[in-house]
Design brief:
alpha+beta, Alpha-Beta Plaits, 4-stranded antiparallel β-sheet
Amino acid sequence: MSISVYSEINFHITWHTKTSLPMIREKIQDRLYHYLTHKILETPGALFHAIGGTETHIHIAVSLPPNLLVSDWVGKLKGSSSHYINHEVQPKSLEWQRGYGIVTFGTKDLQWAVNYIKNQKEHHKTGTTYDRLEKFSDDEG
C-alpha cells in the first residue's frame, strides 16, 4: 500500500446490549461514551465525529483509514468497553449483543449523520428513526 493515501471513508456504526436490555443507564453512559471516544481517537488515522444512543444501543460516526480491518476494530471497541465498564465503573453491568450494523455515507451527509446520532433519544421517543441506521445484524428476524 502506498505511504501517501487520501481517503474519505465515513461509517455509521451501531451495536446493541445483550438481548437489547436497557444496560446503558445514566450512571455508566458518560463513562462509556468517554472511553469509546478515547479509544477511537487512539486509532491511527481515525477521525471521530459523534457518539450517542439509548439505554439499549450505541451509535458512532467515524472516518477510518482504508488499511483498518473494521470488523476487528469494532470487536475490540466492544470487548474493551464492556471490560472497562464492568471492572472500573459498575461490576456486571454491561454486555454487548453479537454483531453490529455498519453503513457508509458520503462526506456531504456527515452533519446529518452527526445530528442523527446526537439526537438518538429524541428519535426513538418520537418514532423518527431510520431503520437502516438502527439495524445491527442480518438475523434480527
